[in-house]
What we know:
Elements: H1 3-27, H2 31-52, H3 58-80, H4 85-108, H5 115-120, E1 130-133, E2 137-140, H6 141-159, H7 161-169, H8 171-176, H9 181-220, H10 226-251, H11 255-273, H12 279-291
Antiparallel strand pairs: 1-2
Amino acid sequence: MSYAMWILLTASLVGLSCGIVGALLILRRMAMMADAISHSVLLGIVVAYLITRELSGIHMLIGAVIAGLLTAVLVQWFHSRGVQKDASIGVVFTTMFAIGVVLIATKVGNAHLDTKHALMGEITFIPWEKVQVPWLGEIPQATLTLSAVLLLVVFIILIFYKEWKITSFDPALAASLGIPVVLMHYIFMSMVSLTTVAAFDAVGAIMVVAMLITPAASAYLWTDRLSIMMMLSALFGVVSAIMGYYIAVWLDTSISGSMAFATGLVFLLSFLFSPKHGLASRLHYRSAAADS
């Protein structure tokens, strides 16, 4: 497979996994948690490096997931004690991200782990860091990791699909039916953290946030069915990845930044032309109503 195709495949895997998870984030009105976790995982990565002094390995994934879960727990803890949800999110993630940045600047900073890399990622390096896989040959490590995470996310979504649907739309009903709402919440936060961490090294925090929120927000304008929304969100994530890559090649600019920009273009088109909630459709209905 060519160099460009590995980049496109890796970015598409990010779009697929983030798009599926992002649909539930949007329905649960937790979009800003994506921003919080995508930044706070930096602290987990830095702490894992300080303990092991190695920049790759399962310890980095574990550290980042723990940081993501800690973010969710702290946000919930502050909110339960009277702090508004959005304020809790803002305080927790900015504090944890700032601690991570300070640690990088004072103890860790090097060419492979710095603040710019954390924010923007470096997807152009993905095809060079390969591992040997039986029957598949050499494939980029990030592509393998993202493939495994995507399969895990799809598996968890499928086996708990009914629970996700009920807890997302009506948590009170879910609790009355005996569904462990709190447990489902933290399973979901683990899934968000895992997805974020898998994409973080390849594409950086900015694209992770864009891919978690914007394709799902676009899909929400097209359908009222959860299953269709998830599929559309995943599709929009892949389309944004491919479109963003070619925009970056055309303008000779950041690939991750262009992919994040492409998610905005997809949302704009959805906002204008979706059949039910699109601006053009609403104007048409108003014009038809006025004529009648």
